[in-house]
Design a protein that fits this description.
By secondary structure, this protein is α/β, with parallel strands linked by helices. The chain is built from 15 helices and 8 strands. It is elongated.
Amino acid sequence: MGFIAALSRANSAVKPHSMLRRMSNIPESTVYGGPKPQTPNQRVTLTHLKQMYRKGEPITMVTAYDYPSAVHLDSAGIDVCLVGDSASMVVHGHDTTLPISLDEMLVHCRAVARGATRPLLVGDLPFGTYESSTSQAVDTAVRVLKEGGMDAIKLEGGSPSRITAARAIVEAGIAVMGHVGLTPQAISVLGGFRPQGKNLASAVKVVETALALQEVGCFSVVLECVPPLVAAAATSALRIPTIGIGAGPFCSGQVLVYHDLLGMLQHPHHAKVTPKFCKQYAHVGDVINKALLVYKEEVTNGSFPGPAHSPYKFSANDVDGFLNELQKLGLDKAASAAAEAAEKIGTAESCVGKSPASD
């Protein structure tokens, strides 16, 4: 009994923040206890998304690539964070998503995982890392979870090989989000970034592909750049949530890229890769540009840094000793520079500290 009581006290002493970050696709109730029922401050799980879907509550998803953006998503209560291969274009400056490697994606995944404690985390499988075989697909997905800290993966397309890959990954115990419509990794076949589902055959293919992904176990499907009525049809046909991007208002949820929705970059390259369906909820890029211009001006005119931003003080009693030591080392010029700096610092501090009443 004494051992059991001691073990109980030890367990109760463990602080919540000392526990490892739980994977959010763990069921809420398992034979091992599992995470407690969800509250607004806890992780979003697949169970939580299913509950939202059943209740008809819209799901919010944002694509982000680093720690600061993940922290912002966390604070805003975003439900799902996608670490997208669009980092190739938005962060690395490429014209397509094709160049980014798995190792590069894993760096982005780990950074986001450190910053986002609430959203479900989904990592894209980059081009060239899952097409060759089901073994390659599973191995890549495993790395995204184990090394990237993600909860689930997303893969693009609905060809037979992609459907087979999705099935294999699900059977390996990894949650999969599908992606149909415009699939940027397939621009070689599509002939560029072209909307899909605009004619009868293409529209039917979007719905059929989404259904096929559902049947192999995907927990959700992204619908990108398809007409709203096609998205509405797919959403109605499926028993899992659809996440729209440029697909109209009839999906189960929506996703936009962090940089795009914030108006982060005002640059010809980014203007070229920012889709026209994106609504800008802020013009953060303008604020950044103005701040950088002011910073450059203040450094140039010498007003920064002033006393308020030069916090580290040298003891006044040691100034003379320091000057003497510099002179002993034959550094007369350095001693003169230090003496001049001490005089300027003293003058600046006296001006700051002088009250209007003492004038």
